[in-house]
Amino acid sequence: MFRVFHSFAELEDEPKACALTIGNFDGVHEGHRRIMREVVELGNSRQLIPSVLTFHPHPAKVVAPARAPRLLSTPEERFELMRQTGIQQVFVLPFDKQFSELSPHDFVKQILVCGLNAKAILVGANFRFGNRAAGNTDLLRELGERYGFLVGVIEGVTVRGREVSSTEVRRLVRQGAVSMACRLLGRPYAVEGVVVRGHGIGAKQTVPTLNLDTKAEILPANGVYITRTTDLDSGVEFPSITNIGVRPTFNGDALTVETFLLAPLDGRTLSEIRVAFLRRVRDEKKFDSAESLKAQIMKDVGRAQAYFRRILKLTPPRREARSESL
After folding, report:
1. What's the rounded Cα separation, in Å, for the pair 315 and 30?
2. Under a CB-based contact definition with an 8 Å cutoff, are residues 214 and 227 in contact?
3. pLDDT at residue number 317
4. Tell me, which fold does domain 15-159 have in CATH?
5. What local confidence, expressed as pLDDT, does residue 204 receive?
6. Each residue of 254-292: pLDDT tens digit?
7. With 0-12 CB in 10 A as exposed, 13-18 as middle and 19+ as buried, what is 64?
8. pTM of the predicted model, to two decimals?
9. Mean pLDDT, the chain, as a whole number?
10. How far is it, in rounded angstroms, from Cα 89 to Cα 79?
11. How many angstroms separate the CA atoms of 125 and 67, rounded?
12. d(CA 95, CA 77)
């Protein structure tokens, strides 16, 4: 059974021994997933509960607010991705100034040993902990010997010569390099939100679109993308094409996320959707007229349809819904 704990008060009087990894895990990318799979394997082999320790808010928002990153994922999205790797429990500790001042030794003794009963801890090679990030993996090993827990250090993952990190994924998404971001994440980058009424220009002058209002902190660079849109109420997926931008042809100035579905709704009304970004098509540009824009949109649609036909040819048929990693 998968559980999320937000305080020590929610734990049993004597927490069960666990195998643990520690971090922020924004995006839960392929590097994170590798560590979590190792935690699950180790936990299963030693009768330890595979667990994650993470923090909220992001520590940088407390110790260096000006440098705090915009995040790729919400806590709920991270929890679900952790669950999918086989993790059974997640500890979310509130990160505040007092917590940030714990020395490395106190962090290990009070949180990891006494608080969580960790018997095995796996971390990445660049793991740091304690006040001013003074603790490193060498110190963690020393404290493991003192307090009786195993320490394992997992080397980073590289994809096509790129070291996988949340920072790199953020950079790629902001640049619009969503195909490479997908490789580092192990799935397409996606944003969720509610469908809102637009200005009505698309329905009248170009093509009808779904206008997404999202609280996502990071959006791909302005431009046109091949996407997959999921109705969050039913789980039904639609091939789609999405524009992020300010509608320069119509002298717009507000950022919008507009999605055109390539398959019929069949009577459905979509209220909440997820848009997954598969491939960048082109930059957003200003056209001389609505007719010219519509003609370009039809060309973009043709490229998207060819993309999805190619994906279908490469994907063996199966009964369940297609994975978002396509």
Report:
1. 22
2. no
3. 55
4. Rossmann fold (3.40.50)
5. 42
6. 899 999 999 998 888 999 999 999 999 999 988 888 888
7. exposed
8. 0.90
9. 91
10. 9
11. 22
12. 19
Name the stretches of the chain with pLDDT < 70.
Answer: 198-207, 249, 251, 315-326
Residue for token pair 């307090």: 147
CATH classification for the domain delimited by 189-314, as one of 3.90.10.10, 3.20.20.150, 3.30.280.10, 2.40.30.30: 2.40.30.30
| Residues 144, 158 contacting (CB under 8 angstroms) | no
Is 291 buried (19+), middle (13-18) or exposed (0-12) by CB count in 10 A? exposed
Structure tokens at 148: 């009786």
Residue partners of 138: CB distance under 8 A and separation at least 6: none
Domain map (residue ranges) of the chain: 15-159, 189-314
